[in-house]
């Protein structure tokens, strides 16, 4: 070794830069990003627009049509002064009759929010972006609930006011200040919103759109008919626990012995949704995309 040679310290490799990943972000940031993503997906799909339009059209259009048809039949019967019919007539229920069909439109929307991702294969990309499947399902639930609640509430209030405008021409209308009317209208909007969430849970469980829609329709429409086949008094006791009958109690003004009270109906229907979401979360967590 020559005298001019000197010992140089060994060069140290630079530490690699740390790039944050989704696991480094707090849960709130992950949920916020998932909400933005779900809102973008929801508003960019054509089926969303059509489902919401059909929900409003059925709620408003059919409600108004049923009110007009009642007045037309009443004139044909010539029973304007029939006190018994006037006593039994429920103007609020008449203007909200469109909810029966509207529930199917918004329920299908709930199914499509999840099942469409499995159909197109987008579910793999979605779960790669949001690995936490609970956050993934929660984000879909929040976005769908917010959109569904706005559309449902606007639709039922417009249906109510248009229906009462038709009925008031013959002195049969009512107002929101009447006993239990406001509660019934709000209950109808809440019921439509919950049906959408019920559809989302079923879409998560079944994953395939045709099967999920058939399951939703079967539970909502066919289950009450099956309950009627039971002998008395079990037909009423079981039938009132069906999702549609429980929901119908939420937007009924007058007491019906065959239905639950509005509060009982709400809790029973929430029980159906909670059960469906538990199954949905288990299946979403354990099955591959």
Shape: globular
Unreliable stretches (pLDDT < 50, length at least 5) are 1-26
Summarize model confidence as the mean pLDDT: 86
Count of spatially separate domains: 1
Order of helices and strands: HHHHHHHHHHHH
As an assembly, this protein is single chain
Distance between the termini: 65 Å
Number of β-strand runs: 0
Helix proportion: over 70%
Approximately what portion of the residues adopt beta-strand conformation? under 5%
Quick one: biggest sheet? none
Question: Structural class of the helix and strand makeup?
Answer: mainly alpha
Number of helices: 12
Rg value:
27 Å
Structure description:
The chain has 289 residues and is mostly helical. It has one domain (29-243, 257-286). Helices cover 73% and strands 0% of the residues. Helix 8 (181-206) runs parallel beside helix 12 (262-286). The longest helix has 36 residues, at 133-168. 37% of the residues are buried. Mean pLDDT is 86; it is low at 1-26.
Features:
289 residues; 12 helices; disordered N terminus; mainly alpha; 0% strand
In short:
The chain is an all-alpha fold and 289 residues long.
Topology of this structure?
Layout: H1 27-44, H2 46-77, H3 83-88, H4 91-95, H5 99-120, H6 122-129, H7 133-168, H8 181-206, H9 209-227, H10 234-239, H11 243-250, H12 262-286
Helix pairs in contact: 1-7, 2-5, 2-7, 5-6, 5-7, 5-8, 5-9, 7-8, 8-9, 8-12, 11-12
């Amino acid at each position: 070794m020559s005298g001019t040679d000197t010992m140089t310290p060994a060069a140290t490799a630079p530490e690699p830069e740390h790039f944050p990943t989704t696991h480094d972000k707090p849960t709130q940031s992950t949920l916020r990003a998932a909400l933005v993503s779900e809102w973008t997906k929801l508003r960019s799909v054509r089926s969303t627009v059509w489902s919401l339009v059909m929900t409003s059209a059925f709620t408003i259009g059919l409600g108004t049509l049923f009110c007009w048809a009642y007045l037309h039949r009443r004139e044909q019967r010539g029973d304007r002064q029939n006190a018994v019919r006037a006593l039994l007539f429920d103007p609020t229920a008449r203007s909200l009759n469109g909810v029966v069909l509207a529930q199917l439109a918004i329920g299908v929307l709930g199914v499509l929010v999840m099942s469409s991702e499995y159909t197109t294969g987008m579910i793999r990309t979605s779960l790669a972006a949001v690995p936490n499947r609970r956050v993934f399902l929660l984000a879909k639930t929040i976005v769908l609930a917010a959109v569904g609640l706005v559309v449902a509430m606007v639709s039922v209030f417009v249906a109510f006011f248009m229906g009462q405008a038709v009925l008031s021409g013959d002195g049969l209308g009512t107002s929101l200040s009447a006993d239990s009317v406001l509660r019934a209208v709000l209950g109808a909007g809440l019921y439509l919103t919950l049906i959408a969430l019920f559809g989302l849970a079923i879409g998560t469980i079944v994953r395939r759109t045709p099967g999920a829609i058939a399951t939703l329709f079967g539970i909502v429409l066919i289950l009450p008919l099956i309950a009627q086949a039971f002998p008395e008094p079990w037909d009423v006791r079981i039938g009132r626990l069906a999702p549609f009958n429980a929901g119908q109690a939420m937007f009924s003004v007058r007491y019906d012995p065959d239905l639950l009270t509005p509060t009982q109906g709400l809790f029973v229907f929430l029980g159906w949704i909670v059960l469906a979401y538990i199954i949905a979360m288990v299946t979403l967590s354990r099955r591959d995309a």
